[in-house]
Design a protein that fits this description.
Length: 696
């Protein structure tokens, strides 16, 4: 564990932050910062946690979060087209209503999006390839985290000043015009410790009329104060993407010509985001010691063509938000007490416009989806959430944890158009009205209470076990409440809730780390679209499984790392749903593989590293009725890194080594098999040049 120290005027030394740097191999004690919002040895955690360290991120060199997420058990960030993705953590791949906002995405412990204004593709806003670590918590988190942490939490930890002194320049080339350039500078900025990074990337893609340009970056600096220290972090992203849609037809992904086709060459996505965070910590021994104050501002905008809808309407949306995370940790009896208050204010907007009338299809389709504005609304939200959690030793080997979170969320919706489901000029559509319905101005509020309780057993100095019972929740998102369809004037939705029972065992020795977890989860009131096109919250599902992960450092520089999951996820209700789906109690949820996993075998020497990775995606059903199935697939990836000298490092990555034809995601909708085809064999070459600080 490394403590970054700053010198305060007057000579006092204070700890700026307990920023843990987990070692590259299992020999170093693993430290987790996400679970308790502070650095904590993994053996003292009550609950699962996976940390993907900087060495694994650097060796993988992820261009898409799918490439690194699979290294955590129970995690599948399925790749869509270009930088698009859908996340699954102890869940199926969620689509449509109920999908967005089911996972809590953090950057250094701060949510990257406000509650209620999610984006299922939001990880393209995060500098994933520049993170010093990625921490994954599976299932609902404890009382310190609230809305959206339903199925899991991803926390991307950015580098801290002093972690990589000097200047590092990296260039990478790959097929189809792929280029990536990165710069990382770690030193002083105006006499203060600072670190900054920038990634600029272009991909021509293997599919026709597709590809993207993007950049992502961050800057962090630290300032000692007469009382404590402050750390300021700015990060941002920009994406310009030519989007490729599904290819259709049974097993189309296996045809080398069809898989390159793009049925939607006109489709695009443009997005940008900015985040600013300030963190203040008092010095140890101060009367305010134990206080953790974080302030943040966020902004994002997106513009994309909904090529997957008839008429291809264009959506524009954005949000501006800010908040405060105020935490306090103090001794309590023989244990500790964590209390805090999270406050957030957000203002978001959405517009949907169809440029041209539909000229094909049925009379009903053409009449009910007119050209013009469909939606134009603004939503302001206020959130306040106090919480408290205790950890109390019951004996030298037993620790009890109990927490409670109360969260209040208020939406103030303002329709900028005519109420109802007319055309934008007020004229009615035939067949009972236009498809798109706009509610009148209204306010909606949600109050949630989320408890958690757990018990830790320190079996010995290297092994601990735990049992925990936790509730997570997800309030309806703004689009689910106010983006309605014909016949539904009010979406009377409840918050989704998920109760999770978890038993786990964790072992950490000098050369071996192991974690085994069994879980059972029950989800209620999950939101879906029914056969009438209404957003309803009466779904229920059950999820149970076993997750295993381990890291093993062998003699002579050999190492092995593995993450594996078996899970069963089933519907617990009967209903006719949207798109002709019929949900039957006991059926597997579609796009929910029962098995997921990865294994990495490698050798690390003084000046080289070689690694072979096996990635497994199990088979899954494509529809709720369980009538069609994708068989799953296995991939091999090879990575080689060589230090040419003290300053130059060469990395070669061969993805899909055996050149298998697979689908990154498969689907069955409107009677059609649909696929996002996976990439064929790719060879990428990266060269890094590092200039130490004394040479600058």
């Amino acid at each position: 564990m490394t403590i970054r120290l700053a010198v305060v005027p007057g000579g006092a030394l204070i700890a700026l932050a307990a920023l843990a740097e987990a070692g590259a191999g299992p020999g170093a004690e693993e430290i987790i910062v996400t679970a308790q919002r502070r650095a904590q040895p993994a053996l003292t955690l009550i609950g699962n946690a996976t940390r993907i360290d900087q060495q694994a991120i650097g060796m993988t060199g992820p261009r898409h979060p799918f490439e690194i997420g699979i290294q955590a058990p129970g995690t599948w960030i399925s790749r869509g087209t270009q930088q698009e993705h859908l996340t699954a953590i102890r869940s199926p791949v969620l689509t449509g209503p109920g999908a967005c906002g089911s996972f809590l995405m953090l950057e250094d412990g701060i949510p990257i999006r406000p509650v209620g204004f999610c984006n299922v593709n939001q990880l393209f806003e995060v500098p994933v390839d520049q993170a010093r670590a990625i921490e994954v918590l599976r299932g609902p988190a404890n009382a310190l985290y609230g809305a959206n942490g339903l199925h899991g939490t991803l926390n991307f930890l950015l580098p801290v000043p002093g972690s990589s002194p000097g200047l590092t320049l990296t260039g990478e080339l790959g097929p189809y015009g792929y280029r990536r350039g990165r710069v990382l500078a770690d030193g002083d900025l105006a006499g203060r410790p600072a670190i900054g990074g920038l990634t600029v990337e272009r991909d021509g893609d293997f599919r026709d009329d597709a590809g993207y340009n993007q950049w992502r970056g961050f800057l962090r600096w630290q300032q000692a104060l007469p009382r404590g220290a402050v750390e300021v972090t700015a990060s941002g992203s920009w994406l310009d993407q030519e989007t490729a849609g599904f290819i259709t037809g049974l097993d189309a992904y296996r045809d080398r010509e069809r898989r390159r086709a793009n049925p939607n060459p006109e489709s695009f996505r443009k997005a940008d985001s900015q985040r600013l965070a300030l963190r203040w910590l008092p010095p140890p021994g101060d009367s305010l010691s134990g206080l953790d104050l974080r302030l943040y501002l966020r902004r994002s905008e997106m513009d994309f063509l909904q090529h997957f809808l008839p008429g291809q309407p264009r959506e524009e949306n954005g949000q501006l938000s800010g908040g405060v995370l105020l935490g306090w940790q103090a001794p309590w009896r023989d244990g500790s007490l964590s209390t805090g208050l999270d406050i957030e204010i957000a203002s978001g907007w959405l517009r949907q416009v169809q440029a041209q009338p539909i000229t094909e299809g049925s009379d009903f389709l053409r009449e009910t989806r007119p050209a013009g504005r469909h939606y134009d609304f603004e939503v302001t939200s206020w959130l306040a959430a106090p919480y408290a959690q205790i950890e109390l030793p019951l004996s030298p080997r037993w620790i009890l944890q109990a927490g409670l979170r109360l969260e209040y969320l208020l939406y103030d919706y303002d329709n900028q158009m005519l109420d109802g489901n007319t055309r934008d000029d007020g004229t009615p559509c035939g067949f009972g009205g236009c498809l798109y319905n706009r509610p009148a101005d209204r306010r909606d509020s949600f109050i949630e209470v989320a408890p958690n309780i757990g018990l830790l057993w320190r079996i010995d100095a290297r092994t601990s076990g735990w049992v925990s019972l936790t509730r997570g929740f997800r309030p309806p998102q703004a689009t689910e409440l106010y983006r309605l369809q014909s016949g539904q004037r009010v979406a009377d939705l409840d918050s989704e809730s998920l109760d999770s029972l978890e038993l786990g065992l964790r072992h950490q020795a000098e050369r071996l780390r192991l974690e085994a977890v069994a879980f059972a989860m029950d989800k209620r009131d999950y939101i879906l679209r029914d056969a009438e096109g209404f957003n309803v919250s009466d779904g229920r599902s059950r999820h149970h499984g076993i997750e295993l992960s381990g890291n093993w450092l062998l003699p002579g520089g050999l190492y092995a790392a593995a993450a594996g999951t078996w899970a069963r996820q089933v519907y617990r209700f009967d209903r006719a749903a949207g798109q002709g789906e019929v949900i039957t109690r006991g059926n597997d949820i579609d796009t929910a593989p029962r098995t997921l996993g990865s294994v990495r075998l490698g050798h690390a020497g003084a000046s080289h590293q070689a690694e072979l990775e096996w990635v497994h995606i199990g088979g899954y059903y494509l529809d709720a009725a369980n009538t069609a199935r994708y068989p799953g697939h296995d991939l091999l990836n090879l990575r080689l890194a060589v230090d040419l000298n003290r300053q130059l490092r060469l990395v070669t990555r061969i993805n899909n080594l055996t050149d298998r034809l697979v689908a990154d995601r498969a689907d069955l909708a409107f009677g059609q098999f649909r696929y996002f085809p996976g990439r064929e064999r790719e060879i990428l070459v990266e060269l890094s040049w590092r200039l130490p600080p004394h040479n600058l």
